[in-house]
Each structure stands twice: as structure tokens, then as C-alpha cells.
Design a protein that fits this description.
alpha+beta, 2 helices
């Protein structure tokens, strides 16, 4: 349970969005289930051959692919998966760009599911309530015993 918590909290603290690879399109570079840590980049500095992570379907999904071509006139990129034979026809605009994979942890993405995140959030809430209640009960106990509280 600690691992999923660390996989969520640490990247947020460092400002690194995470993405989970859900297909084998980028094999062998990124296998299905890999947890990607993504750094933001300026689209102007990207070149053909670099891997990028971007939103598709109005942000419902995140893909990681390699840049196959850049159309400077239309300000779009075309991508290809490492395992694919042909370039994808979808135009990737700058606004869809999440960034570039900085590093990845193979197979760890299988542990960071929506169910795991939900459980971690619930445990965090229970822990917070426990700490608050314990603190409150200790304060009441000390007041009843007539002890001075140090703040």
C-alpha cells in the first residue's frame, strides 16, 4: 500500500505528472504497465525521433509515442509507436502535449489503478481523522487532570 502512495505523492511534489502505459505500441522502450514520469517541455524544442506523452480524445486518454514528423505550417506533430510499421494519422497539437518521459518504472503501473488510488485516499482520510481525534482526546484528558498545556 505504501508503494502506490509514494508513486502518487512524490511525483506531485516534484511537479512530474505520471502516465501509465496501457498498450504495447512503444515496446520494447515502454512496456504495458510501465509507470512514466513526465517532464514538461516546450513543443518548439522537440525533434523527430523523440518520445512524447500527450492527451487524446479530449483528455480522456494519455498516449506515449515517438515523433515521426512535424508540420511547421499547421503546428502539429505526427507520431508512431516503436512497434508500429506506419505513422499514425492523428494530428497532435501543442495543446495536447503533456511532455516527455523522464524515466519509467516497468510494470509498476499495474499497481497504481483507480481502485488503488481510491483506497489510498480513504486510508489517508481515516488516518487524518484518527490523528485529529487522538489529539483532541489527549487535550481533553489533560484539561480534566488540570495539567497545563504547552503550545
Amino acid at each position: 500500500m505504501l508503494l502506490p502512495l509514494l508513486m502518487i505523492v512524490i511525483p506531485k511534489m516534484l511537479g512530474l505528472p505520471i502516465a501509465i502505459v496501457k498498450s504495447d505500441a512503444m515496446e520494447p522502450t515502454y512496456s504495458s504497465g510501465s509507470l512514466l514520469f513526465v517532464k514538461s517541455v516546450d513543443a518548439e524544442n522537440l525533434i523527430v525521433g523523440e518520445a512524447i506523452t500527450y492527451f487524446v480524445n479530449q483528455g480522456e486518454q494519455i498516449y506515449t509515442r515517438r515523433i515521426a514528423a512535424i508540420d511547421q505550417n499547421e503546428q502539429v506533430m505526427y507520431t508512431i509507436g516503436d512497434i508500429q510499421d506506419h505513422m499514425e494519422t492523428t494530428k497532435i497539437r501543442k495543446s495536447q502535449l503533456l511532455g516527455q518521459p523522464l524515466f519509467h518504472l516497468p510494470r509498476i503501473g499495474h499497481l497504481v489503478t483507480s481502485e488503488t488510488v481510491s483506497i489510498v485516499k480513504k486510508l489517508y482520510l481515516v488516518f487524518t481523522i484518527y490523528i485529529t481525534a487522538t489529539t483532541f482526546l489527549v487535550m481533553i484528558s489533560q484539561i480534566k487532570q488540570g495539567k497545563r498545556m504547552v503550545m
